Amino acid sequence: MKTTTDERASAAATTGDRPVIPDGATIALDVRSLQKVYRTQDSELEAIRDLTFQVPRGQLVCIVGPSGAGKTTLLRCISGLLESTSGEVLLDDEPVTGPPPGMAVVFQEYGRSLFPWMTVRQNVELPLREKGIGRAERHALVDEALDAVGLGDVPSAYPWQLSGGMQQRVAIARAVAYQPEVLLMDEPFAAVDAQTRADLEDLIRTLWKRLGITVLFVTHDIDESVYLGQRVLVLSNRPTVVIEDVRVDLPDERDQLETRSSRRFTELRGHVYELIQKAKKGYRP
Ligand SMILES: Nc1ncnc2c1ncn2[C@@H]1O[C@H](COP(=O)(O)OP(=O)(O)OP(=O)(O)O)[C@@H](O)[C@H]1O
């Protein structure tokens, strides 16, 4: 990936000087001085040093960083699946101490996240049952979610009868049907082909806009982070801190061809690329 010095300078000059959080926004997610040290009997590994950021309700934020930076660790702490060493995560001003009811997570390994003995409909319906939603409403939510991801015609299929991209759509439908306030996605498209990936990216933006949910999306892919996000949080290498919080000032309507070939997209992607290169070399602010 090549970027010119002019492009980088231009992106740097215009991403840092405007707020990534609009004035008066309601904060959905508040990550405060989060630290995570993995401890075993004879070793310690500090994955996250100090992360502080806020996500307003309804924002779509992408997180990028070098491999092993601690992105998955961060999502696991935010989702309450992992206890942090210090600091805290607040969802709507309430500390997260276990998986909160208002959160859903979509992981990369769709194959492992779906139950093979359950049909598509049963997989999507399961968390709704656990949430105690009545039968009629459950069915309506499942139908709506499957339609939204373009799987309205295969509710009786089993996951193993579907392609990888379709299985990931089922995982997305399950998260969406649950009507989360915050949706966490950990490299959800890493294992699908490029064309499916583009379709799923557009699907996420469509669902995000339609449902008004707050989305935190971890990806390895710099282009994907700029294409999807309103904001890209760039992380340092381990132990992780935020290097830069980049505002993505692209038009709200995104198009795979038009947006990705626009000058501004190239500038932003160049800027994030440069930050990642610096991160890999050990740069930290
Ligand atoms: N359960 C664990 N016990 C000990 N160390 C762990 C554990 N899970 C992750 N780590 C370490 O913490 C660091 C951060 O891992 P993490 O998976 O969060 O990074 P990542 O940014 O998601 O990586 P990638 O981009 O490669 O997916 C790594 O050095 C990893 O080896």
TrEMBL record:
Q: Has the keyword Transferase been applied to this entry?
A: no
> Record's CDD domains?
ABC_NrtD_SsuB_transporters
Keyword Disulfide bond appears in the UniProt entry: no
What SMART domains does the annotation carry?
AAA
- Ranges of residues in domain ABC transporter: 29-262
Tell me the keywords, alphabetical order: ATP-binding, Nucleotide-binding, Transport
Recorded hits in Pfam families, A to Z, give:
ABC_tran
Annotated InterPro entries: AAA+_ATPase, ABC_transporter-like_ATP-bd, ABC_transporter-like_CS, ABC_transporter_ATP-bind, P-loop_NTPase
Query: Molecular function (GO) terms listed?
Result: ATP binding; ATP hydrolysis activity
Tell me which domain of life the UniProt entry assigns to the organism this sequence originates from. Bacteria
Q: What is this protein called?
A: NitT/TauT family transport system ATP-binding protein
